[in-house]
């Protein structure tokens, strides 16, 4: 039995059913999502790919409760995300979701350590000291904890963001082009950390990217085009991803 | 470039409005002041011109330095007949003016310090009295009253009024009309009753006229007649044309208007200074925000000077629009103020709202210049933007380092300021010292202005301690954010500091003055009741009052003061007041009373002894009622700060021998221990019940009245300074909304990470709260220090007192005001969509 088979049997962490999202009205209406059905397995690292304008970022925003959906439903664990109030969504994000963005991930006034602890501080929770140490060591920031973001390199900043996402043990981490602003070496580092955290901490990660190399770190890649899920690849290699993309864009 | 600038302005209407509001308010206040004073001035001019048209020539008292000391100068009555006989005179009337006290419905004379005037209402063309209700008096038992007194005292036409003549005899008149006081400041002070000329002679028994008004025959010019009249009156009076007379009156009133104008403009200047700081800050932020826009302009070929000019042009447009709006606001404010003045029945002649061209230009120019000057530095900073900045994605954090130069200049201003202040304090008490201290204050303020960015961080730690502790993450972030751009925070808070400093200063000074006066009243009046006669110098209290009070068991000490009604000439040609004290003065004069004077001895107040240059043991001569110079020996001095009294105090018998057995002018009473105050008061009131001119006040009342008047001044000043504070709040709101704009993505990130909307709002409000507290804290410290310094220059032995409640209120209110200013920006930030905000920038 392969690893993929195990994941197929585990309950999904995030499920979207018949998800549609329309911006604007009438002639100006843009159908960003046209009915997406997708499930993200617990403890797996999934990448969402697609050409520009395919709706991949919109899908992530809807899944994470950052944006409202036009119709359909989103479940995170056993919680129906669609229909929650702003306050309930905020609590959901705070307690059960981790985020890694492409840039501007950190608050410039806070030190690296304060940034890592920020979601827990907002929630008024204490970090598990053992987990904190483990995460910090995993991302290799031990000697940078007291530094302000301005004193860190781009790669280090993204590693802080990864640590921040991991520290709350969220049900799912959404990463939006986490390596988009990094050079290839720093990018590879960050992606390795993400994969390690999936392996070692059984963390569920959903990552949006347009970079085939980045996507190849995932266990599975789902492809979007024009607001529809068009392909689903398990255990991808950069070559397969590249070929699939070429096919989609043609 | 012009098109770009204007398009940019149109695209950011809200920003334009916020920026303009500060200038609009400042200009509004200044032009409101102008509208008010212009209108009053126009009213005066109108009234004077109307009066000048009636009188061709007036005879006014000849100047006489010596006689003017003894009382108001008059024109001898016999001159009237002589003037009437002059060739070319059509008519001439003598205008007199004496105190004839109207008795109010409570049986006591109207007025607390002075009684009403009595004036003749002359007939014919020379009548300058304007009857507004009813008619002029025609018979001897008819009188008219000024409308303001009638209103406040509840008299209506047809009623009977009782008036005391100069000999304090009661006379009853039928009120047949009400008249306008017009522009006569002297009459306005106390009000007036008008009689027929004959009745006036009977009531007032004047010894001379204030003025003789002359009407010329047709074809006789005023100047010709003036010369003829001048020849007729000789040295006994001065003949002037009606025009000159009105100019003299206008001059006297002009001084008062100037005083109001300058006073209000001072507050306007403070408001404009604050507005300037707000504008400076706003343009700084705008330039910082548009770095990329300006870099793009530079990329496509704009020169540095074009960028500079575009910013200045923007400020000029903003300044002009805001000033025009301010002018309109000022018209409204001025009109409202005039309404209030008219409603309160103040004697200011206020007709239609007037705004002169000069005032309009002054208002517009002030607004424009302040805006453009405030934008100069930011515009210069904008020229430093490199074209490459257009390509950078992230705006750099505005790092701030305190350079050596900053410290040097701060030190320089501080040393200078402290030096000047200390010099002011060590000066003898008076206006000179006060102004010097004010100068020192301005210098120290500059030091604070320069060092402000350095102070912001530690102060935010201090003021933010509690919010950070109470509100967790939002609190801590707020404190951090408040100092992210120390320069911006400093300018924002300093704007508030100005208002708070001045408010604290005024609070401290008034509290200190109050404390000093309380202390002086305690020393001066260790008595329970003071009886005083209201009216002119002739007003007295019959001796029977003191004598009756002495027989009452409620009172242990009754002391009567007597004083000669006229100033007395001394041997070195000075004028002094001479009096005596009857009763056990020692029991109420606790300290500084060296002993009662013996026969032919005199005790001098310290001030008089200094003025005359005499000391105990010396002799001096005083002119008695009979005109003889009598020698008295100075036996001691006393401190008038501690006990009120005449310049020269004689023994009772000596005083009576020289000046006759006069009545009392003041009686002070002390209760026996254990007497009930209410009962004692009733006894005093029953004793003086039939004496309308005698008023009783308890020392508590005197104190209360004084404190009330101080509090009123404090309220007015606080109200005027409120404008400066309001403008600085606009500054806080402006800074915060621009900061919110700058941190759009950061706020979105926090929201994504689980900060609720209320928490985000709290965070921004706390940031404003901390800024408000910093401003208030600096302001309170400055205000306390310079309030103390100002108090030192006011009196010999100053008592410094601060009102802790006021000061605590200033601090708390400043913080809350900051929160108020943050509400709108915070609301906008909290409503922003996370997804859009994350994608922006």
UniProtKB/TrEMBL annotation, chain A:
Transmembrane segments: none
Alphabetized PROSITE patterns for the sequence: ABC_TRANSPORTER_1, ABC_TRANSPORTER_2
UniProt cross-references to InterPro entries, sorted A to Z: AAA+_ATPase, ABC_transporter-like_ATP-bd, ABC_transporter-like_CS, ABC_transpr_LolD-like, MacB-like_ATP-bd, P-loop_NTPase
Domain ABC transporter: 14-250
GO molecular function: ATP binding; ATP hydrolysis activity; transmembrane transporter activity
Membrane listed as a keyword: no
Keyword Ribonucleoprotein: no
Pfam families per UniProt: ABC_tran
Keywords annotated in UniProt: ATP-binding, Nucleotide-binding, Transport
Entry's Gene Ontology cellular component terms: membrane protein complex; plasma membrane
Name of the protein in question: ABC transporter ATP-binding protein
Source organism of the structure: Sinosporangium siamense
From TrEMBL, chain B:
Transmembrane feature ranges: 16-36, 259-287, 308-341, 361-383, 404-427, 433-456, 494-513, 713-741, 762-791, 803-824
InterPro entries the record matches: ABC3_permease_C (IPR003838), MacB_PCD (IPR025857), Macrolide_Exporter_MacB (IPR050250)
Top-level taxon of origin: Bacteria
A GO term, aspect molecular function: transmembrane transporter activity
Keyword RNA-binding assigned: no
The entry's keywords: Cell membrane, Membrane, Transmembrane, Transmembrane helix
Signal peptide: none
Membrane topology according to the record: Multi-pass membrane protein
Occurrences of domain ABC3 transporter permease C-terminal (ranges): 266-383, 720-833
Record's GO cellular component terms: plasma membrane
PANTHER family xref list: ABC TRANSPORTER PERMEASE YTRF, MEMBRANE COMPONENT OF TRANSPORTER-RELATED
Major localization class: membrane
Family classification: Belongs to the ABC-4 integral membrane protein family.
Subcellular location field: Cell membrane
Domain MacB-like periplasmic core: 17-231, 489-685
Record's protein name: ABC transporter substrate-binding protein
């Amino acid at each position: 039995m392969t690893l993929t088979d195990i994941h197929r049997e585990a309950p999904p962490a995030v499920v979207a059913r018949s998800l549609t999202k329309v911006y604007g009205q009438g002639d100006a209406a843009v159908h960003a999502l046209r009915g997406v059905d997708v499930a993200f397995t617990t403890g797996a690292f999934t990448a969402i790919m697609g050409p520009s304008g395919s709706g991949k970022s919109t899908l992530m925003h809807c899944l994470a409760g950052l944006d409202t959906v036009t119709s359909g439903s989103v479940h995170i664990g056993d919680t129906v995300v669609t229909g929650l109030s702003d306050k309930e969504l905020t609590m959901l994000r705070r307690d059960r979701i981790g985020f890694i963005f492409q840039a501007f991930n950190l608050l410039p006034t806070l030190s690296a350590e304060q940034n890592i602890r920020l979601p827990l501080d907002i929630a008024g929770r204490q970090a598990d000291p053992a987990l904190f140490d483990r995460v910090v060591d995993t991302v290799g920031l031990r000697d940078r904890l007291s530094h302000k973001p301005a004193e860190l390199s781009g790669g280090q900043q993204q590693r802080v963001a990864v640590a921040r996402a991991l520290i709350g043990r969220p049900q799912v981490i959404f990463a939006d082009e986490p390596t988009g602003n990094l050079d290839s070496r720093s990018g590879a580092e960050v992606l390795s950390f993400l994969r390690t955290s999936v392996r070692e901490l059984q963390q569920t990660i959903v990552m949006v990217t347009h970079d085939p190399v980045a996507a190849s770190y995932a266990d599975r890649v789902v492809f979007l085009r024009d607001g529809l899920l068009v392909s689903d690849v398990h255990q991808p290699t950069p070559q397969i991803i590249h070929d699939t993309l070429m096919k989609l864009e043609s | 470039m012009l098109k770009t600038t204007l398009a940019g302005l149109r695209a950011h209407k809200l920003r334009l409005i916020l920026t303009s509001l500060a200038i609009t308010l400042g200009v509004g206040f200044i032009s409101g002041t102008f509208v008010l004073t212009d209108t009053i001035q126009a009213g005066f001019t109108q009234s004077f011109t109307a009066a000048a048209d009636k009188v061709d020539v007036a005879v006014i008292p000849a100047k006489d330095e010596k006689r003017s000391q003894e009382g108001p100068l008059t024109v001898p009555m016999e001159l009237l007949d002589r003037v009437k006989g002059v060739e070319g005179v059509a008519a001439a009337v003598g205008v007199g003016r004496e105190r004839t006290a109207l008795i109010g419905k409570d049986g006591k004379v109207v007025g607390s310090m002075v009684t009403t005037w009595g004036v003749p209402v002359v007939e014919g063309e020379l009548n300058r009295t304007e009857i507004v209700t009813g008619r002029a008096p025609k018979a001897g038992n008819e009188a008219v009253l000024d409308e303001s007194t009638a209103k406040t005292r509840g008299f209506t036409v047809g009623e009977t009024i009782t008036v005391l003549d100069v000999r304090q005899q009661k006379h009853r008149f039928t009120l047949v009309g009400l008249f306008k006081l017009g522009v006569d400041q002297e009459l306005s002070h106390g009000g007036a009753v008008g009689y027929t000329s004959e009745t006036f002679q009977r009531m007032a028994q004047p010894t001379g006229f204030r003025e003789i008004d002359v009407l010329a025959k047709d074809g006789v010019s005023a100047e010709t007649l003036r010369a003829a009249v001048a020849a007729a009156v000789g040295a006994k009076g001065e003949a002037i044309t009606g025009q000159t007379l009105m100019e003299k009156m206008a001059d006297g009133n002009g001084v008062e208007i100037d005083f109001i104008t300058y006073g209000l403009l001072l507050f306007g200047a403070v408001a404009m200074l604050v507005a300037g700081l707000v504008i400076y800050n706003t343009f700084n932020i705008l330039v910082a925000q548009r770095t990329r826009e300006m870099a793009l302009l530079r990329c496509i070929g704009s020169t540095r000077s074009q960028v500079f000019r575009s910013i200045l042009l923007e400020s000029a447009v903003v300044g002009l629009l805001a000033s025009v709006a301010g002018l309109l606001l000022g018209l409204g404010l001025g009109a409202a103020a005039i309404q209030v003045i008219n409603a309160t029945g103040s004697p200011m002649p206020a007709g239609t709202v007037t705004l002169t061209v000069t005032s309009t230009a002054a208002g517009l120019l002030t607004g424009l210049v302040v805006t453009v000057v405030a934008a100069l530095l930011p515009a210069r900073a904008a020229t430093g933007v490199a074209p490459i900045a257009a390509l950078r994605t992230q705006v750099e954090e505005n790092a701030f380092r305190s350079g050596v130069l900053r410290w040097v200049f701060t030190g320089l201003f501080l040393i200078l300021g402290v030096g000047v202040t200390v010099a002011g304090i060590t000066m003898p008490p008076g206006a000179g010292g006060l102004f010097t201290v004010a100068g020192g204050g301005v210098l120290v303020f500059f030091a604070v202005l320069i060092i402000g960015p350095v102070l912001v961080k530690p102060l935010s730690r201090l003021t933010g301690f509690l919010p950070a502790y109470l509100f967790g993450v939002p609190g801590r972030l707020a404190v951090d954010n408040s100092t992210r751009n120390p320069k911006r925070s400093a300018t924002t808070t300093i704007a508030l500091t100005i208002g708070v400093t001045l408010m604290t200063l005024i609070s401290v000074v008034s509290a200190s003055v109050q404390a000093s006066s309380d202390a002086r009243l305690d020393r001066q009046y260790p008595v329970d009741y003071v009886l005083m006669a209201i009216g002119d110098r002739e007003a007295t209290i019959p001796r029977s009052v003191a004598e009756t009070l002495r027989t009452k068991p409620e009172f242990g000490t009754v002391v009567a003061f007597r004083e000669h009604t006229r100033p007395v000439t001394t041997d070195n040609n000075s004028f002094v007041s001479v009096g005596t004290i009857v009763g056990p003065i020692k029991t109420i004069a606790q300290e500084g009373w060296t002993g009662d004077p013996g026969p032919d001895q005199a005790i001098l107040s310290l001030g008089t002894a200094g003025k005359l240059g005499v000391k105990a043991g010396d002799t001096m001569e005083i002119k008695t009622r009979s005109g003889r110079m009598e020698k008295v020996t100075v036996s001691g001095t006393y401190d008038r700060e501690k006990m009120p009294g005449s310049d020269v105090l004689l023994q009772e018998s000596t005083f009576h021998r020289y000046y006759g057995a006069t009545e009392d002018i003041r009686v002070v009473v002390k209760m026996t221990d254990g007497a009930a105050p209410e009962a004692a008061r009733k006894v005093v009131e029953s004793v003086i019940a039939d004496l309308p001119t005698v008023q009783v006040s308890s020392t508590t009342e005197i104190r209360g009245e004084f404190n009330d008047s101080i509090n009123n001044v404090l309220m007015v000043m606080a109200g005027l300074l409120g404008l400066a504070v309001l403008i600085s709040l606009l500054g806080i709101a402006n800074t915060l909304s621009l900061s919110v704009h700058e941190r759009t993505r950061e706020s979105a990130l926090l929201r994504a990470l689980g900060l609720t909307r209320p928490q985000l709002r709290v965070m921004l409000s706390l940031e404003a709260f901390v800024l408000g507290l910093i401003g208030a804290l600096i302001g309170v410290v400055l205000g306390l220090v310079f309030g103390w310094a100002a108090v030192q220059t006011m009196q010999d032995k100053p008592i410094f007192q601060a009102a802790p409640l006021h000061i605590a209120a200033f601090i708390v209110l400043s913080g809350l005001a900051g929160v108020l200013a943050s509400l709108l920006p915070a609301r906008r930030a909290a409503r922003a969509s996370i997804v859009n905000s994350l994608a922006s920038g």
